[in-house]
Amino acid sequence: MVNQHFLIVPASGIGRRMNAQKPKQYLKLENGLSVLDQTLKTLLNIEQIKGCVVAIAQNDTEFKNSIFSNHKKLLATAIGGKQRSHSVLSALKALRPFAKDNDWVLVHDAARPCVKASEVVNLIKQLKDSPVGGLLATQVVDTIKKSRHHIVETTLDRSELWQAQTPQMYRFGVLSKALENVMKNNLMITDEASSIEYLGLKSVLVPASKSNLKITTPEDLELANFYLNSTLKL
Question: Most buried pick, 22, 124, 128, 196, via CB within 10 A?
């Protein structure tokens, strides 16, 4: 049986560091699309992705205005939680009627609108035989210092360091178990790969472009517009 691929987009954050009037996922890009809509435009056009769940805040009033709010691949919206893990687990529960344990789930940050479809397709290709899954990432090229109170303690070996991106793609059953373990043991994680680590499982790193940045500050929004306007993009 062919395993299906589903998409989860956590989009319930506030994005305080943007100092904006609305959550960063709903800010407009220069192409007229919101950050979230640009993200969904790229990902929902990928043939392998058969369905999507978007996790939104309980008091969200913006998603109904999205051009994708009635998209044929949108299976449901889920109510996001306080932490990312709450939002993804909520979306997994909404996805349960559609997905089998061995199907794939790609979790992608709403605030990464510059993701390349070709790199997502490559992620799917590279992980197709994995029993667990993996994620897009870039190798660290800068010299990285570990500090305490702004004083350098040591220099880390950058040859072993990678910067995690999204999508992060895992088997539905494995990811569900990993996030339920996070909830049960009150663990703090910042991505899905961390929850997989707590189960003692290994994730595959699939190289990606630095242009797949996460919008966190106003400067990031400017850089995202640059990448999206570039002829080298998408």
Answer: 196
User: What is the identity of the amino acid at 114?
Assistant: C
Rounded to whole angstroms, how far apart are CA atoms 99 and 7? 11
Contact (CB, 8 A) for 221 and 227 = no
Residue 85, SS3?
Answer: helix
CA 198 to CA 137: how far, in whole Å? Answer: 19
Q: Which domains does the chain have, with CATH numbers?
A: 5-229 (3.90.550.10)
Task: Name 151's Cβ contacts closer than 8 Å, sequence gap at least 6.
Answer: none
Neighbours of 136 (CB within 10 A): 28
Query: Which tokens in the block code for residue 72?
Result: 């044929």
**CA neighbor of 88 nearest in space, from 188, 215, 191:** 191
Q: List phi, psi (to 5°) of 143.
A: -75, 130
Dihedral of CA atoms 228, 166, 162, 81 in degrees, nearest 10, equals 120
**pLDDT digits 0-9 by tens, 4-57:** 999 999 999 876 666 677 899 999 999 999 999 999 999 999 999 999 999 999
